[in-house]
Amino acid sequence: MGIRIACQRIKVRWQMAFSIAILITAFGSLVHKNFSLHNRVIELQDQISNLNIRLQACNLLDSVDTNTMLQESDHLSSKGLKILALIVSLALLSIPIFIFKYIDHVSKLRSSENSSEKVSLNKQLEYRVDVFLSVHPYAKPLALLVATLMLICLGGLALFGVTDDSLADCLWLSWTFVADSGNHANSEGIGPRLASVSISFGGMLIFAMMLGLVSDAISEKFDSLRKGRSEVVEQNHTLILGWSDKLGSLLNQLAIANESLGGGIVVVMAERDKEEMELDIAKMEFDFRGTSVICRSGSPLILADLKKVSVSKARSIIVLAEDGNADQSDARALRTVLSLTGVKEGLRGHIVVELSDLDNEVLVKLVGGELVETVVAHDVIGRLMIQCARQPGLAQIWEDILGFENCEFYIKRWPQLDGMQFEDVLISFPDAIPCGVKVASHGGKIILNPDDSYVLQEGDEVLVIAEDDDTYAPATLPMVWRGNLPRDFIVPKSTEKILLCGWRRDIEDMIMVLDAFLAPGSELWMFNEVLENEREKKLIDGGLDLTRLVNITLVNREGNAVIRRNLESLPLESFDSILILADESVEDSAIQADSRSLATLLLIRDIQAKRLPFREAMVTRSHRGSFSQGSWIGEMQQASDRSVIISEILDPRTKNLLSMSKISDYVLSNELVSMALAMVAEDRQINDVLEELFAEEGNELHIRYADLYLHEGEELSFYEIILRARQRREIVIGYRLARAERAVINPPAKSERRRWSVKDVFVVITEKE
Fold first, then answer.
1. CA 472 remoteness from chain centre
2. Does residue 216 surpass a pLDDT of 50?
3. 387 with 766: CB under 8 angstroms?
4. Closest to 463 measured CA to CA, from 745, 687, 686
5. Bridge partners, residue 555, by sequence
6. pLDDT value for 14
7. pLDDT for 525
8. Bridge partners (DSSP) listed for residue 508
9. What is the C-alpha separation between 125 and 140, in angstroms, rounded?
10. Residue 11 burial (CB count, 10 A)
């Protein structure tokens, strides 16, 4: 078998050699004949020259005959060159054919000799060409240019061989055939027509490939623009990295903040399709107020993608937490901060990072340094829920202060106030309420609620609550009567009984905050599906030291908060406050978590209403005009007067259900966190203010009854109330009238007197009790 294969291989090689020899012999004979003719022409020219000299000497030859002979000799010479040009063009055209045939033949021989070889020679050649075209971006147009030039040259040589035109004219004629295939219609003769048709056919192929390249380039560019791969050429823009349910509220707050500037630029980069992001943003039901939102697809972990959104020129960068596991979300936020700190051009703005777990805050600040401001979403919401549970109505006040729609915090320097005491500064702004001072001598530290005797120094800035940063300014100091408090006493703390429904991953932090706020002897009931014998271990693993709880006693109950018989086992009518938490088992889905919270709320209110004395229920119901006396919402509304229920809401759409029924004071988690992120993004100094207001120590927002500051029916201006509150070391920032549903923060006309009722309440900033 091997001898047979070897014989076949030798036979094929002899056939190839014989064919090549014939071609070489034929080509050599033609070349030899051409050169022989050329030499013969040269000899004839020499003889003619000699004869011409002799005849001219004898005056027997006329010069006209000599020119005729020279033309004949030139014609013979040019005819030889044309034949040579035609042969060369045909040989060059046949060379690629022989090369491909040879490669194919060698590939077949190799495959027959070595069956284990998987890659043939022609496949290797295809691979090399593919790599070349992939590595070099301009390889395709360059190859097309070379092919065009070769076609023009070969076509020119072929035309030169079959026509009487010069070589330059033939090259130009070849280009016209390549550029316009219809130009060959005027060709006459078999040779010129064959050459012109061949050139025109090659020209059509060339231009088809050129159109394909141009079409691909245009499509690729439009595809790049459509998918958000182009670079953002902006500066002083707000950059948002990531995508979550909070994005809609965040964009709304940024749009409101930029309205006074005529709008701004917000760039959103996430690992999503650009068209999908734009479609989701277009569905958001709010006015962008002149703000433009630009979407780009990319990863914040890739420096090239960060450069694409001009990260070094952004005035603030917001890193959103991912929906899902808290540890994975915070780990990704940490890697994002590492990528941002690795930008070679440096960052112009600061980084606002949303975290899910308080324990990861230290690590992120360690990596980001002074560039980073953190907002721990779960911690903020947990503390707000506790504050709002102890003081009904505080949720609405926090929404007004954190959002840009009403009044918010601003810090600005006013040189004309230097040397003035803080007590006088309080009544110097008709359209704002001073809350603190940024002390230059203490390294820019912000002091909330300072002493009245503090004197503003050069470089100090004033922290105020105002509608916008350009809507307030100090005015002439008014004459305000201070007066005295109706009674001077400290509101004593009373023991409370609080119920926590559900289990959060940071529930141990909430327990420690409650222990700091509540009076000694208070009870904290915990009702959830975690087994009672496992709770203590989970709390200890979370960092809670049960022996350090001095003010509260933990009472554990096991059960499902959406099952009525489990809830009926609790003394629901005896609790002062009930906190319905978004359980960690369903917190990844906002709709599912809200559905569970809403079901728990309705069950608790219904059970409370059934347990109230009938006569008390009838008396309370008679004062309700919103719903019929026999309606279930009416019964639950009068039950809400007996205890406060705070529901942790993740989806803004659930807010409308609770606000309409008025059976619960709500906390809108995602919206409040978005407000805090937007406020810190606009001014990073505000983060220090928010951290103190949320912390266990320092100052906090509080709701006080009016009888602490005035008598029933007393007429006072808001400035006078501010100065009276200073006797209790408090700053009054707003009020809510007895029959009003919403509080008024930073009220206008502060110098005008009005009649107050002891049932009115005031919103104050005061030291934590």
1. 34
2. yes
3. no
4. 686
5. 525
6. 54
7. 94
8. none
9. 16
10. 10
Dump pLDDT digits (tens) for 21-48.
Answer: 565 555 555 555 555 665 676 777 777 7
Instruction: List Cβ neighbours of 729 (8 Å cut-off, separation of 6 or more).
Output: 449, 766, 767
pLDDT tens-digit profile of 419-429?
999 999 999 99
Q: What is the per-residue pLDDT for 43?
A: 72
Lowest average pLDDT, out of 117-126, 213-222, 365-374, 389-398, goes to: 117-126
The residue type found at 737 is L
Distance CA 664, CA 661 (A): 8
- Give the model's pLDDT for residue 561: 92
CA distance 331 to 335: 6
Is the pLDDT reported for residue 635 higher than 50? no
CA Rg value for the chain: 45
CA torsion sign, 26 to 27 to 30 to 32? Answer: negative
What does the DSSP assignment read for 140-198?
HHHHHHHHHHHHHHHHHHHHHHHSSS-HHHHHHHHHHHHH-GGGGGG--SHHHHHHHHH
Give the residue from 768, 766, 758, 767 showing the smallest Cα distance to 708. 758
With a cut of 90, say whether residue 270 has pLDDT above it.
Answer: yes
- Residue among 126, 158, 295, 308 nearest 230 (CA): 308
pLDDT score at 60: 44
Alpha helix stretches (DSSP H) within 641-740: 652-661, 669-682, 686-694, 718-726
Query: What b-and-e string marks burial along 48-65, b requiring 16 or more CB atoms within 10 Å of the CB?
Result: eeeebeeeeeeeeeeeee
Taking the C-alpha atoms of residue 166 and residue 174, their distance in angstroms, rounded to an integer, is: 12
Residue 77 sits at the vertex; the CA angle it makes with 74 and 79, to the nearest 5 degrees, is 110
CA dist 696 and 711 (Å) reads 32
Give helix 632-640 / helix 652-661 axis angle, nearest 10°: 90
- 573 three-class SS: helix
Amino acid symbol at 602: L
Amino acid type, 766 = T
pLDDT of res. 241 = 96
- Which residues partner with 730 through β-bridges? 766
Specify the amino acid at residue 23: L
Q: State what percent of residues in the chain have pLDDT above 90.
A: 33
Give the SS3 label for residue 243.
coil
**pLDDT exceeds cutoff 60 at 710:** yes
Tokens of 187: 């060709």
10 Å Cβ neighbour count for 638? 22
Per the structure block, which two tokens stand in for 27? 């080509």
What 3-state DSSP class applies to 748?
coil
Q: Does the CA dihedral 413-419-423-429 come out positive or negative?
A: negative
* Range of weakest confidence among 665-674, 693-702, 738-747: 665-674
Rounded to whole angstroms, the Cα distance separating 554 from 561 reads 18
Query: CA-to-CA distance for 404 and 467, rounded, in angstroms?
Result: 8
Give Cα separations from 17 to 95, 98, 121, 414, 735 (angstroms): 16, 12, 21, 99, 107
Please state, as a whole number, how many other Cβ atoms lie within 10 Å of the Cβ of residue 209: 16
What is the rounded CA–CA span in Å between residue 127 and residue 121?
Answer: 10
Residue 130 has pLDDT above 90, yes or no: no
b/e code 360-382 from CB counts within 10 Å (16+ = b): bbeebbebbeebbbbbbbbbbbb
- Domains for the chain: give ranges and CATH numbers: 81-96+123-227 (1.10.287.70), 238-370 (3.40.50.720), 497-609+636-671 (3.40.50.720), 696-768 (3.30.70)
**pLDDT at 641 (0 to 100):** 55
The pLDDT tens digits for 54-94 are 666 555 444 444 444 445 555 545 556 666 666 766 666 66
Beta-carbon contacts of residue 472 (< 8 Å; ≥ 6 apart): 410, 429, 430, 431, 432, 464, 466
